[in-house]
User: Which sequence fits this backbone?
């Protein structure tokens, strides 16, 4: 078993944490404990329900709810970028997330491995918060080297 790793990036007065799908390494409870210890104000799941169930994280929303931690799913296909419907819904997601980060909130984002999709969304939030895309990517990859894996993910992330 590997220790669950959370990469942290400051944004506004708050912080974004990025990690893998809890349970992916075989110990959902230990991973959940690590996430809770990071003290997220909200958790954004980019993994599909099927990915979550396969990793043993099918109860994540309930387990977070029991701790009064808001949970949202913004499912994106592995190695993909948001589809047209998700792109229409994104402004509603990002507005609340950026407002919470600006107030010092802590947002934990995960996909399956905590790389492509999580990095893409973190980068998009950084750009929407006013950071230069190149500088934001450099800062993001300093914390999470695998962040943003495909050209489509990069294109979506920097169009903010």
Assistant:
């Amino acid at each position: 078993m590997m220790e669950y790793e959370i990469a942290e990036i400051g944004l506004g007065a708050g912080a974004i944490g990025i990690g893998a799908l809890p349970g992916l390494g075989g110990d959902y409870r230990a991973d959940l404990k690590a996430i809770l210890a990071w003290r997220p104000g909200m958790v954004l799941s980019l993994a599909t329900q099927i990915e979550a169930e396969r990793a043993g994280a099918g109860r994540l929303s309930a387990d977070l709810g029991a701790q009064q931690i808001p949970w949202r799913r913004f499912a994106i296909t592995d190695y993909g970028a948001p589809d047209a419907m998700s792109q229409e819904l994104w402004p509603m997601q990002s507005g609340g997330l950026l407002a919470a980060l600006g107030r010092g909130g802590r947002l934990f984002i995960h996909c399956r491995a905590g790389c492509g999709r999580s990095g893409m969304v973190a980068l998009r939030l950084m750009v929407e918060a006013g950071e230069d895309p190149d500088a934001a990517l450099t800062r993001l990859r300093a914390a999470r080297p695998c962040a943003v894996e495909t050209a489509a993910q990069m294109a979506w992330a920097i169009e903010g």
